[in-house]
Write a structure and sequence with these properties.
By secondary structure, the chain is mainly alpha-helical. It has helices at residues 3-59, 69-96, 107-123, 157-170, 190-199, 204-223, 228-253, 265-277, 302-306, 341-366; strands spanning 134-135, 147-148, 182-187, 259-264, 287-288, 310-312, 322-325. The longest helix is centred in the N-terminal third of the chain and has 57 residues, at 3-59. Keywords: Membrane, Transmembrane, Transmembrane helix. Residues 315-334 are annotated as: Disordered. The chain crosses the membrane at residues 39-62, 68-90.
């Protein structure tokens, strides 16, 4: 074999190896690209939808510590965000594969997607109420751990080190950031604690004194010949004053202790301003809109999206042809069954769909 023939053989071998590597890379890309698109689209749509839910809470003045309304709105918001994430993932994946969008959306599938998202949101450590904005006068959406505060005094160096550890792990309890200087935030704030302490000194004797003085003034007005309307004015004022005393007394009767929560200097400055102004600022000024933070429960939206993932055949002649789907369920969709993890998703989805199917059957039987 001469040198020219050896050179040609070497070049041919290299070309074949390059073509083989290119074909192999194309096959892998053909499989991974839809999967990555599905994962990215579902996660992004889920978190953006949660920001929208937070905006609704901000508009209506619902904070993460608002009783009843916060967990209910958070529950509905996470469920809706999960359904949106599944639809976004399915459409993005089909666009990458060059396939047309599927037919109409079935309510049954939306409920299943919402149930999956809600389940994994809780499994990953999420709390429904924390979807809403934080309140500067209460523990925030990222308030997980705290330490006992010795009154209104500043924290000690040992407490500061513990707060710094919490700050680097959980972030600012108000906005969630892990950057900047850590501040020991009193909760409830010192001003609120002072008002409660002052209100705790009120007793039933204060109410009796207010009503007694009002009755004396009313009687004096009648004796001096004034009309009933003028005589009733002291009683009306006394009633209004009592209505201000009673809630404060009830609030002060609750035992409370101040605790330190890790807080960033930005949120601490905002808190100082609104607490100093108090009732002079609108209620929304006490709310803090927290952006998307890298937390485990932020990945909950990926699971409803992956349920709609459709794998493709890894063959040179394969066009983007689905090999299996985690779950078929939209009108006009092919009914190919998935394999491996897809079968697990299929069983989970079918288990969630059974109550809905029974409900539809019962409705059909009554009609």
């Amino acid at each position: 074999m001469d040198l020219d023939e050896l050179a040609r053989l070497t070049v041919d071998t290299a070309n074949k190896a390059a073509r083989g590597a290119s074909t192999h890379a194309e096959r892998i890309s053909q499989y991974l690209s839809p999967f990555a698109t599905n994962l990215a689209a579902s996660t992004l749509a889920f978190n953006m939808s949660l920001l929208g839910v937070q905006g609704v809470g901000f508009a209506f003045g619902v904070a993460c510590t608002t009783p009843i309304a916060a967990p209910m709105l958070g529950f509905l918001g996470v469920g809706a965000a999960s359904a949106v994430a599944a639809q976004a993932a399915m459409r993005a994946e089909r666009a990458v594969q060059g396939r047309k969008p599927e037919g109409r959306i079935l309510w049954e599938n939306l409920f299943v997607d919402a149930a999956l998202g809600l389940t994994f949101y809780k499994v990953l450590g999420g709390r429904f109420r924390n979807v809403l904005p934080s309140h500067l006068a209460r523990p925030g959406a990222f308030a997980f751990q705290s330490i006992l505060a010795p009154g209104a005094r500043y924290c000690t160096p040992a407490q500061k080190n513990e707060l710094r550890r919490m700050f680097h792990r959980d972030g600012c309890h108000t906005c969630g950031t892990r950057r900047g200087k850590v501040i020991g935030d009193h909760q409830p704030p010192n001003k609120v604690a002072a008002e409660r302490s002052k209100a705790s000194q009120l007793s039933s004797t204060d109410i009796s004194a207010v009503l007694g003085n009002a009755a004396t003034q009313a009687a004096g007005s009648l004796v001096t010949g004034k009309g009933p309307s003028q005589a009733a004015q002291p009683l009306v004022k006394a009633f209004r004053k009592v209505m201000k005393i009673v809630p404060k007394e009830l609030e002060a009767s609750r035992s409370f202790t101040q605790r330190y929560y890790p807080q960033c200097d930005t949120c601490s400055s905002k808190q100082g301003v609104v607490m100093r102004l108090g009732d002079k600022v609108p209620r929304r000024k006490f709310l803090v809109f927290h952006p998307i933070r890298p937390r485990a429960w932020g990945l909950a939206g990926a699971f409803p999206g992956l349920e709609h993932h459709q794998a493709v055949e890894l063959s040179p002649a394969a066009e983007t042809k689905p090999r299996g789907r985690f779950r078929g369920g939209h009108a006009g969709a092919d009914a190919a069954d998935g394999e491996g993890l897809g079968s697990l998703w299929k069983l989970t989805a079918e288990a969630l769909r059974l109550p809905l199917a029974g409900f539809e059957d019962s409705r059909g039987g009554r009609s």
